[in-house]
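Budget justification aside, the reviewers requested a transparent look at the raw inputs and outputs of the sequence design task funded under Objective 1. We therefore reproduce one unedited record. The lines immediately below are the structure tokens for a 168-residue chain.
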């Protein structure tokens, strides 16, 4: 009897911990609202580019070797049109993922497509995506009034874990 109770209790704790890492419908709505303050009509594309550049600057500060992964988009000049275009692609990709947070099949399809794109890029790692998450958690409070890092990270990982599942 004690063993059965222990298994049930352990199962409940495991399910509770797993639920803490799930992006719920409420979380998805909150993240969408947070992101809307970045993506809103009041913010120009330039604001989004600046945020993206700051995210990459954060990544390069924490991992200078990561710069070599972006040589083809002229990372040597972070304000170059080629690097800005790359930043726009990244931010637009994130926007798509955020808009699919509440539609799991579409989220999986979009994240799967991004996984395929990143899997063929030598040197792209799970750790790089974690650095990007760290950057957003540090930088978004500067542009999002009611930024909730826990909710952001739960939903971020619901998408990014699909992408990074194929990476080292």
């Amino acid at each position: 009897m004690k063993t059965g109770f222990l298994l049930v209790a352990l199962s409940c704790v495991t399910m509770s911990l797993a639920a803490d890492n799930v992006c719920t419908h409420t979380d998805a709505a909150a993240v969408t609202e947070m992101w809307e303050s970045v993506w809103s009509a009041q913010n120009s594309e330039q604001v989004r580019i600046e945020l993206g550049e700051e995210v990459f600057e954060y990544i390069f500060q924490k991992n200078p070797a990561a710069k070599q992964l972006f040589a083809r988009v002229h990372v040597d000049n972070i304000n170059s049109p080629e690097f800005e275009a790359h930043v726009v692609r990244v931010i637009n990709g994130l926007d798509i993922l955020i808009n699919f947070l509440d539609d799991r099949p579409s989220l999986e399809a979009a994240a799967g497509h991004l996984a395929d794109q990143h899997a063929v890029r030598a040197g792209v790692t799970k750790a790089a995506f974690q650095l990007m998450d760290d950057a957003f958690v540090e930088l978004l409070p500067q542009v999002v009034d009611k930024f909730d890092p826990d909710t952001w990270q739960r939903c971020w990982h619901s998408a990014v874990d699909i992408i990074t599942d194929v990476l080292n």
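Residues 5-19 have pLDDT under 50 and may be disordered. The chain has one domain: 24-164. Computational costs for records of this kind are itemized in the attached budget.
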